[in-house]
Amino acid sequence: MSSPSKFPVTLLLLSVILSVLTGLVVARSGGERAAVAARPTLVLAVDPAAATALGFDAAAFTAAAGEAGVNVVAAALPAGDLAERTRGARVVVLVAAPGIEPAVDAGAFVVAAGNVLPGAELFVPAGENLTARTAAAAARLALGRPLIAAGFTPDGAGTIPTVTP
Amino acid sequence: MKKLAPVLAVVVLIACIAGGWGLAHRPAGEDRRGGLLVGLSLDTLKEERWQADRNNFVKRVAELGGETLVQSASGDDTRQISDVQALISRKVDVLVIVPHNGAAMAKAVNMAHEAGIPVIAYDRLITDCDLDLYVTFDNVKVGRLQAQYLADRLPAGRPLRLVRIYGSKTDNNAFLFKQGQDEVLAPLIKAGRVEVVHEDWAADWKPENAKKITNAAITKAGRNIDAVLASADGVAGGAIQALLEEGLAGKVIVTGQDAELAACQRIVNGTQAMSIYKPLKQLANRAAELAVALARREPILTRTGINNGRTEVPTVLLDILVADQGNLESTVIRDGMHTREAIYPNARP
Known about the structure:
Distance between the termini of chain A: 78 Å
Strand content of chain B: 15-25%
Radius of gyration of chain A: 24 Å
Number of helices of chain B: 12
CATH architecture of the largest domain in chain B: 3-Layer(aba) Sandwich
CATH class of the largest domain in chain B: Alpha Beta
Number of domains of chain A: 2
Helix content of chain A: 40-55%
Structural class of chain A: alpha/beta
CATH superfamily of the largest domain in chain B: Response regulator
Oligomer: heterodimer
Largest sheet of chain B: 7 strands, mixed
Number of strands of chain B: 14
Strand order of the largest sheet of chain B: 2-1-3-4-5-13-12
Helix content of chain B: 40-55%
């Protein structure tokens, strides 16, 4: 039993130890939350008719991007709320019919898969393994890793950097 | 005091919880003044070229709101690994490495990736690893322009007698320079228009090694040499020293690279014919911009990739050009790389 004169010192020391431990616990749980939040998100907006024509498989895309460490939020095209849906996403992938305006104004990087879309920043040409090629490119960009786009494709106004097979 | 202690204890308790909370909720890359922290690991700072690179890089990062921690390894692989470890422990958001040895630094890239830090190789490739980005000049084109300079000056009626001095075998760029040179020279050698009388690699790009190679060439082939294809200005300087001792300086065409001040002065004096001007400020600025973008995980596209033995590394290539007596004013002087007074020390004001 502490003497009355030592009580405040003991209490002080105990408080310091407890508070440091509490701080560490909070830091640890917060760190875990930060790690979960660090997993990037990309938006996949698909026009079903265009996807069928191009052989694009949205489920396979989502699975491949997920394996690469990226969450996928799905949206349908045409859609007026695409800008709202892409808010906070680094990358948005559009599988659209030609002529559809992407209507993305949320600062996301727009990848056009299969069909050229004016205003897109990257084009993944139609062809074999379109789903896998698009998922690989989009996931890499969403993760913040540089990507080689060696080709260029005319989009009417200029050219779009293009992933070559 | 006795009455104050419990109050003090409660205050400390609240402060520590708040500290822990703050630590837990500190956004990545925002834990120091100015936001982003960039780690720059240099092979060396002994040469003026790398001092300029460092200064320009640090300045541009600061303009973009970041801060740079710089380490220099003085040409020592082990020390450069330690430098990278130190930068990782300082929790940099992105690492930029000028490797002394491109193969040895693969380990540093792997260590950085384990800590979630992306890596840019600056000017020299890091081989056999999953490197994120490579920023450099078009090094194959460097070799091509050096060789083309000689191809445009072939003697009439006989082959050009050529000494070739390559760079350091630990620097992947040395092989790229040679590749570009070979592209131009191979058909000329085959056609008998160029005769390589001697060739060797200058270890660590040291001028004294280049001097020895040139001495060996003169011993082997005599004084009848038309040109020395030196891959960089440092080795050109060593070769020219050997040529001076033989009374051949100014009579033999000597190439170079980097447009170093001493090389520009030799170009003015006529002992070196040309150099390759690489806008180093542009390289440092571009690398700084890419480092900041990579730290922020912004999407980055490159036009080309270079195989490093493990993967096609996304690569940003900057253009280069020949610098000789005809264009020093419109290149190195105009861009502020060297002053007119420094290049022409004997010129009248």
